[in-house]
Amino acid sequence: MKVGKVAQIRLSPADCMSCVDVAQRVGALMPGMSFAIVVKIALASLLESARQAGAVNRRDGFEYSEVMAQFEESNFSARGRKLQITELVNKQEIAPQPVIPETPERGRRRRRWQELKFMYDADPENHPLPIPGTPEFAEWDVLCQEFAS
C-alpha cells in the first residue's frame, strides 16, 4: 500500500470525461480499471504538468506532515476488490506523464525554430542559412540544438 490520503469527491460529467481523456492521452487506460484509478492518473499527470510549468512547487515530501496536519483524518472502510485492483495498478509503477509537454516559452521557441527552418528550406535563394558569428546564426544554432533531432 502506498503512502497518501484517500479523498472521495464528486466530479462533474465534463470533468469525468476529461479524466478519461487524460488517461487515454498518457496511455494509461486499461480494461477493467476503476474510475477512481483513472481520476488518480489524470490528477497525477496534470499536477506533474503544473510542476513542470512552474505553476506548482516540486516538494521533497519532508513537509507532508506539516501541510496535511490541517486536514482531519477520515475513516473509510476497506473495499477488498477495489484495493486488489489498486494494488495491481500501483505495482505496475505507472509514472505520471505530463499532459502539457512544454512550457509556453518553449512552445514559442519551437514555433520560431519551425518558422526559420521552413523559411530556410523553402526559399534558400532569398533566405540562405545565417552566416556564423552573426546574431541570426547564434539564434539559429541555439534553436537547432534544442529542437533538431
Give a description of the structure:
With 149 residues, the protein is mainly α. It has helices spanning 13-25, 35-53, 64-68, 80-91, 104-122, 135-147.
Secondary-structure-based class equals: mainly alpha
Helical residue percent band: 40-55%
Number of domains: 2
> How many runs of DSSP E, i.e. beta strands?
0
Give descriptors for this structure.
single chain, 149 residues, mainly alpha, 2 domains, elongated
Q: What's the topology here?
A:
Blueprint (H helix, E strand, L loop, with lengths): L12 H13 L9 H19 L10 H5 L11 H12 L12 H19 L12 H13 L2
How would you summarize what this structure contains?
By secondary structure, this protein is an all-alpha fold. The protein has six helices and no strands.
